[in-house]
Amino acid sequence: xxxxxxxxxxxxxxxxxxxxxxxxxxxxxxxxxxxxxxxxxxxxxxxxxxxxxxxxxxxxxxxxxxxxxxxxxxxxxxxxxxxxxxxxxxxxxxxxxxxxxxxxxxxxxxxxxxxxxxxxxxxxxxxxxxxxxxxxxxxxxxxxxxxxxxxxxxxxxxxxxxxxxxxxxxxxxxxxxxxxxxxxxxxxxxxxxxxxxxxxxxxxxxxxxxxxxxxxxxxxxxxxxxxxxxxxxxxxxxxxxxxxxxxxxxxxxxxxxxxxxxxxxxxxxxxxxxxxxxxxxxxxxxxxxxxxxxxxxxxxxxxxxxxxxxxxxxxxxxxxxxxxxxxxxxxxxxxxxxxxxxxxxxxxxxxxxxxxxxxxxxxxxxxxxxxxxxxxxxxxxxxxxxxxxxxx
Length: 392
Known about the structure:
The chain is mainly β. It has two helices and 29 strands. The protein has helices at residues 95-101, 281-286, and strands spanning 4-5, 22-28, 34-44, 50-57, 63-67, 73-79, 85-87, 108-109, 115-117, 120-123, 126-129, 141-143, 156-162, 165-174, 185-193, 198-207, 211-212, 216-217, 235-238, 242-243, 257-258, 270-271, 290-294, 303-309, 315-321, 325-329, 354-358, 373-374, 380-390. The strands form seven sheets. The chain has a ten-stranded antiparallel β-sheet with strand order 1-13-14-15-16-29-25-24-19-22, with no helix packed on it.
C-alpha cells in the first residue's frame, strides 16, 4: 500500500488546520463520512513528556482516539444495528488514569507480549534476566515486556492517508539492554482505519542482536459500551482446536491440548459466561479465561482467528491475523475500583475482554513452540485486522 504522510500535504485533497489542532482531512467516503485525522494535546506524563491524542475518523463510521503514549486506544466508536455509534473499549480520559492504574488498556505491547517464566531465558548459550512484574499463583514472571514496556513510552507518530483509508505510523527504538533484552530494536507499528470499518495493525521491527520479540495490542472490548456491565453475554468463536495448558503461574507447560469436550472449545459459537464457572483446573488457574489458543493457521498467511457478537446491539467483529496464536482474556482482574471514562461510573469485574494475537507465551523457554527470536538482517513482520460490523 502506498502511504502518504498527511502532515506533509500528501495529496491535493488534504489540508492542515492550525486553529488549536492539526486537522488532516480527506474527501467524503461511505455513508457521507469524511475520513480524517485530528491531533490535539492529551496531557503530560509524570516526567513531563507531552502526550498527543490522534482522532481517526473512518469513512465507514468507525472513530478511534489514539494517544502516542503506549500507542493506546483511548476510545473506539462503532455503530450498532441502528447506526448509533458508542465507545466500546476501556480506557481513561487523562494521563493520571493510565499512570495510576496501568491495566494495559488499549496498549501496544512489547518487547514480549504475555509472560516469560521467572523473568529469564537463554539465547545462544547466554542467560538473560528480565524484571519480574507479575506473580500469578505467587510465581514471578515478566509480563508484557517488563516494568516499563512499550505501553509506557511515548512513540513518534506520523498521520497517514491512502485514498479513503487513514492511519498512523508509530515508531520507537528500544535500546540494547532495555528491560534486560539484548539488541537495539527499531519498531514501526501502523494503524489503518479503512472505509470498510477494518482496523488493520501492521507490525515491523529490526534488531542488531538476536532478541525475542512478540508484539501485540491489548485493547479491551465491551460491545454494549464502555462501563456498561460485564462481557459474559458476548458470543465468541475461536478458530483453534488446541490450546496451551498452563501451571498455576499461568506459564505454559509446553504441551498442546485439544479443546474438544472442554470449556475451552469455542470452535463453534458460545456465550462467554456459559461455561466459565465449570469446575476445571485451567479455569481455576486463570480465574476464568486467560489462556492461549493455537490457531488453525500453520502457513502464517492472514486468516480468521476469532469472531465476536453481542445480540442486544448487533455488533460483530472478526479478528484476522498472520500470527500462530491468540490470547483470550475476559477481564478476570478488573474491579469496580477503577474509574471509567463515563462520569460517575466505575468499571466492573469482567467489564471487558481482550483478543491478543501473538506467539505463544514463554516461547523463548519452550523449544516446541514456534520461535520468537529475531536476528540481525531479518525483518519481523506481522499483521492483525479487527473487522467491525453489525448483524440484524
